[in-house]
Amino acid sequence: MDDYEELHAKSIADPEAFWAEQAAELSWQKSWHSVLDWNDAPFAKWFDGGKINAAENCLDRHVADGRGDEVAIYWVGEPGDTRNITFSELLSETCRFANAMIARGVKSGDRVLIYMPMVPEAAIAMLACARIGAVHSVVFGGFSATSIKDRLEDSEATTIITADGGWRRGNVVPLKANVDEALENYDAVENVFVLKRCENEIKMTEGRDAWWHDATADMSDFCPAEGFDAEHPLFILYTSGSTGKPKGILHTTGGYLTGTATTFKYVFDHQKDDIYWCTADVGWITGHSYIVYGPMANGAAQVMYEGAPNQPDWDRFWQIVAEYKVTIFYTAPTAIRAFIKAGDHHVDKHDLSSLRLLGTVGEPINPEAWMWYHEKIGAGRCPIVDTWWQTETGAIMITPLPGATPLKPGTATRPFLGIDAAILDETGEECGPNEGGKLVIRKPWPSMLRTIYKDPERFKETYWNEYEGIYLAGDGARTDDDSYFWIVGRLDDVLNVSGHRLGTAEVESALVSHEAVAEAAAVGRPHDIKGQAVVAFVTLKEGIDHGDELALELRQHVGAEIGAIAKPDDIRFTQTLPKTRSGKIMRRLLKEIVSGGEVKGDTTTLEDFNVVASLQKED
Ligand code: WT7
């Protein structure tokens, strides 16, 4: 820990020196002339003048090092089919698919939407984009046709990469059919590549759609890895904010790769013989940073699993850990809580002695879940790295370093090297120990978001307006007497459902788009597995009666507008919503009502106190 303190102090005294040293571990085609250009803050330029290819760093480099025959991905399909793919094979397939895109006119800078199941081709599609400088935007396979369309319109993507379907809990998710629905009355998309995965029946539109295997059949497995500017956009990933419209978080190449590669190496203490497994989906930032770019830049061997944790039963993960002798396992607290509920006998069936390090991400981990993870999965032997970071930060920001940081259940502990994290009060003063405040990052870091795609004003407003030149994370936090960071949760109207970010405004705008709904307010309620569950208060248009079916219909409507993850657990019909005198819905009161408590907070601005009384009665 003393070493950490010394290294950390040194790294934040001169972050540019620290990050330049890390960036130099990557393979650059031309080196940079300036490490950081912050003159146009908050628009950062890292490693300006440098030229780099992200795919070359993830693939060619390892093949050139003589590691081409080593397995990069041990893939497990949900139905039980498996594939082992070496670095050489991954490189050939990436090149072949990159050539197929080039043959169909995809160029550097074009946006490509990826909507895939968890198959190796999802990673190949991302790497193929990176290889030719196309900007990928992965849309989680659980999102709906409407979500695809919104992201197509915002990113102006002209190419889509998808599959006929993907396996989830024994069913086929109709990915291509969802893409078709998104493309009804939308003709800006020129190419749709379709991987054959489930062999479910689909429609192909001539001239626009091509099977992956046909498009790559005659393609060469050589595709040059052009060096792109360090600040060339690598991807856009949409995430929920406090309005109804998700934000397109833009990451660029050199800094992002530096941040993910460095954190992967140190946080997971990655060694040559490790078998790593991150259970996230590539549709989220965790999949981008810690399945694709971080591990692959380090030449890690990893497991990739297509399906659900309980298919066919709740021991599926442990069976995979035992079979592949996984050494590093990275998952989310919500999954851990689901395993606890499913029962220890599922764990006891399998030999987990290969594990040496465990990780969590996505939300604060409750100490009970931490203890169970530590004892039951780690047999008391494996450190747990509780990693705090965000879609925006690109890479892990607050985390223990295994072996160095003494652990405490429930805290992500201390900032990573080169990261100047702090907790500030309303006036911008640093909070003392045990004093709650706002989590910020005081100095730029290489894997930081560069902007919100096509909306630089929203970028400035959301992250840089509270404190001059300082990044506002949007989380409330405090430090303890050991300067460990405890994350309390979001300060904005963003929920964390099963470790995924969901804007209450998004759910509300989905609800009011239904013809029966006049007004809606969505709030989070504590949930013992999901962390938070969505509860929606709904007022109906004049003359409409909610009957028995409407709640079900509204849930389905939200599912169709956003995705299953956003469906409210509970829909409560009400005559009126509590509002301030200026007409703002008082979500805080609704939150108190659904959390089972009395309404304690300040109600002096409430327009009509009877509303609260009646909502509590309905409760
Ligand atoms: C939000 C970011 C980072 C990948 C997954 C989620 C919460 C994330 C932790 C943690 C406490 C955490 C924060 C953050 N969060 N990790 N270890 N402890 N809270 O990415 O969707 O961008 O969400 O997740 O509230 O702001 P995301």
Description of the structure:
With 619 residues, the chain is an alpha/beta fold. The protein folds into two domains: 2-308 and 387-476, 3-Layer(aba) Sandwich (Rossmann fold); 498-618, ANL, C-terminal domain (GMP Synthetase, Chain A, domain 3, 2-Layer Sandwich), CATH 3.30.300.30. It contains 19 helices and 30 strands. The strands form nine sheets. Strands 5-4-17-16-18-19-20 form a seven-stranded mixed β-sheet, sandwiched between helices. It has a five-stranded parallel β-sheet with strand order 7-6-8-11-12, with helices on both faces. β16 (275-278), α10 (285-297) and β17 form a beta-alpha-beta unit. α1 (2-13) crosses α2, α3 runs antiparallel to α4 (87-103) and α3 runs parallel beside α10. The longest helix has 17 residues, at 87-103. The radius of gyration is 24 Å and the shape is globular. The termini are far apart. The model has no long low-confidence stretch (mean pLDDT 95). Bound molecules: 5'-O-[(S)-butoxy(hydroxy)phosphoryl]adenosine. 5'-O-[(S)-butoxy(hydroxy)phosphoryl]adenosine (WT7) binds at residues 239, 285-286, 361-364, 386-391, 412, 473-475, 487, 490, 496, 500-501.
